[in-house]
Write a structure and sequence with these properties.
Strand content: under 5%
Mean pLDDT: 77
Radius of gyration: 37 Å
Distance between the termini: 104 Å
């Protein structure tokens, strides 16, 4: 389109070509800026998710520790009837 306008108004084709190249470069620059912003947003999201993951892993570790303390060993299971039969609170 610019070439047609250039011919109609006697504009040098090199100037028109330079304008087309500049428009193309501006478009590429905008795309690059958009992609860079998207990458930065993705990095921020990754940081948030990583923090949440670390918190969840810590909570799981804590729950495993508590669960492990609650599970009776075979020896403790054998001793349970004796403990149930004993008077725990003597008055």
């Amino acid at each position: 389109m610019r070439d047609m306008i250039g011919v109609a108004f006697g504009v040098d084709h090199r100037v028109v070509s330079d304008c087309n190249a500049k428009d193309s470069k501006d478009g590429i620059d905008k795309e690059i800026t958009f992609v860079q912003a998207a990458v930065e947003n993705a990095k921020a999201e990754v940081a948030v998710v990583e923090s949440q993951l670390n918190g969840a892993e810590s909570e799981v570790k804590s729950l495993r520790s508590i669960t492990h303390k609650m599970i009776l060993t075979q020896k403790e299971m054998v001793m349970m009837p004796k403990i149930r039969g004993a008077k725990l609170f003597q008055t």
